[in-house]
Design the sequence.
């Protein structure tokens, strides 16, 4: 074995080595354990994060696999970022979680690490940290929850949370029905079962080569998820022995593969914030233009909500992510190395599709292009994102007057006011909700349709902001506008009544206000007060990059591989 961190740690001379061995033995381990490769199991489990609350059982299965392969497993916790309980947004702490993961890998005498994640931000955060530390690593997700069911209808969190709330506000369903939907929505442990951000990121791990086949779609409560966990435990020991590191796997070809899968799945817009951050840790520039280039030649072939009709449980039965990747092989770098020690093409060679309605062929796609587009124009000079696969076709080319909300508080105060002067043709604009203005770029970009319009049957409008939205959301929504309003980007200068034009086919987002007027408005613009003046919040505001760079901290880009031997303490 070429990795020797743990061996150096336990064999160190003097009081340091004595202390290392004695305290480890105090947990019930002996010299035979300490002679094996030390495998860390990075566990993001938390009861404040429902999607990750079941991870202890998976950690136990990973340990079993590590022991089977001759390794020495020790579990350690890191920050757990859940979408349900954290406020104002889990994205605010993604970089902190990445730092936590990196420093725990770096500071402990590990030879390899299994990254046990699930909810949206835990997966990119863990991989960001592992990529910077560059120790042999494998991702393992907790898997999606089972489908919800109500009166013969399949429910999906949280696509149906939003859909049924809109119907409730419109008066189409009563309170009793609304509560019944709530009671039948979440039937098991796991992350959201539509192609939201968690499903997207955990699926992309297979395309990046950082997870074993099956990571993306095996349901959380399926016994095969536990079997996968044990296989991960065995494989991480082999990776350590072969000295295969993330830097050998996270190549430009791997990111092309992940982006291609993203488009084919109709995946979450949040991936366009996470993949550049992960790439930056690997020393790879991943411009927004690459997402658009690959979108134009990558058809949408997975029929999954919120862009399609099915959910993750159905995808698993149809063949899962391996079957999708096999279908995409003509568009992929099949030779790319993965954590199996084999190529991506070898990983999926035996995959099969059992339901052609769920996993379509390249010759019979749901849409000829990928699910996401990158927009530019004088309103988004550094770029913006739209999930056009989940948008209303009639709004893909639209010009209308702006209705501006200065921030989330203004939006909440006025959006459902019966006196709000709004029509279906209006463009709803939210300012000051980006990385700095949010702060943390919260998932508020899917602005609610005003209740007065819901009652008239309106279910979609053109909405735009510098915020993000949940991958479970749908609608004609432009996001990630850069530069953000809080930095004085053009979005900050939009006023009620300004004409805004969206042209998805032309990839254009234009504010029809002349340059002289915009220059005049800029002279009167002042930045919002900072959200934080101390602690991590202040660190965040000082160092966070904009959305096109993945919202990582400027001082965290790149990698510094861990040293091969433990640092002396005495």
Sequence:
């Amino acid at each position: 074995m070429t990795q020797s961190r743990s061996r150096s740690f336990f064999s160190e001379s003097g009081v340091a080595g004595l202390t290392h061995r004695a305290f480890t033995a105090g947990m019930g381990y002996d010299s035979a354990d300490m002679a094996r490769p030390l495998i860390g199991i990075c566990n993001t489990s938390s009861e404040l994060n429902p999607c990750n609350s079941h991870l202890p059982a998976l950690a136990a299965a990973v340990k079993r696999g590590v022991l089977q392969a001759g390794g020495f497993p020790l579990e350690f916790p890191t920050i757990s970022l859940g979408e349900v309980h954290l406020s104002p947004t889990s994205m605010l702490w993604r970089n902190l979680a990445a730092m936590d993961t990196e420093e725990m890998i770096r500071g402990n005498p590990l030879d390899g690490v299994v990254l046990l994640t699930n909810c949206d931000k835990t997966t990119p955060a863990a991989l960001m940290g592992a990529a910077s530390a560059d120790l042999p690593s494998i991702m393992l997700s907790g898997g999606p929850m089972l489908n919800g069911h109500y009166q013969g209808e399949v429910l999906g969190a949280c696509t149906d949370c939003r859909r049924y709330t809109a119907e409730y506000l419109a008066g189409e369903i009563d309170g009793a029905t609304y509560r019944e939907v709530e009671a039948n929505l979440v039937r098991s442990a796991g992350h959201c079962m539509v192609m939201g951000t968690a499903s997207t990121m955990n699926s992309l791990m297979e395309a990046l080569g950082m997870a074993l086949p099956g990571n993306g779609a095996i349901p959380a409560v399926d016994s095969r998820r536990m079997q996968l966990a044990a296989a991960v435990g065995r494989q991480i020991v082999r990776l350590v022995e072969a000295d295969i590191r993330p830097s050998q796997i996270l190549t430009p070809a791997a990111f092309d593969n992940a982006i291609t899968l993203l488009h084919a799945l109709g995946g979450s817009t949040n991936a366009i914030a996470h993949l550049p951050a992960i790439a930056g840790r690997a020393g790879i520039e991943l411009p927004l233009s690459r997402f658009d280039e690959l979108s134009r030649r990558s058809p949408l072939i997975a029929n999954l909500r919120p862009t399609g009709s099915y959910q993750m449980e159905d995808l698993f039965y149809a063949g899962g992510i391996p079957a999708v990747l096999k279908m995409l092989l003509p568009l992929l770098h099949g030779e790319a190395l993965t954590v199996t020690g084999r190529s991506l093409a070898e990983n999926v060679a035996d995959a099969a599709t059992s339901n052609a309605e769920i996993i379509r062929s390249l010759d019979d796609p749901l849409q000829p292009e990928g699910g996401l587009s990158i927009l530019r124009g004088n309103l988004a000079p550094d770029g913006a994102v739209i999930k056009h696969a989940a948008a209303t076709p009639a709004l893909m080319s639209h010009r209308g007057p702006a209705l501006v909300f200065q921030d989330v508080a203004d939006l909440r105060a006025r959006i459902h006011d019966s006196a709000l002067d709004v029509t279906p043709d209006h463009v709803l604009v939210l300012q000051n909700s980006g990385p700095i203005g949010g702060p943390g770029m919260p998932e508020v970009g899917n602005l609610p349709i005003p209740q007065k319009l819901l009652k008239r049957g309106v279910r979609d409008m053109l909405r735009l902001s510098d915020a993000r939205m949940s991958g479970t959301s749908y609608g004609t929504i432009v996001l990630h506008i850069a530069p953000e309003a809080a930095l004085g980007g053009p979005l900050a200068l939009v006023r009620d009544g300004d004409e805004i034009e969206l042209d998805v086919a032309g990839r254009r987002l234009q504010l029809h206000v002349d340059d002289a007027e915009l220059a005049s408005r800029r002279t009167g613009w002042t930045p919002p007060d900072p959200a934080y003046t101390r602690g991590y919040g202040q660190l965040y505001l000082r160092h966070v990059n904009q959305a096109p760079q993945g919202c990582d901290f400027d001082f965290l880009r790149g990698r510094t591989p861990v040293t091969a031997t433990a640092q002396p303490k005495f």
About this structure: The two ends are 27 Å apart (CA to CA). Residues 295 and 370 are 4 Å apart (CA to CA).
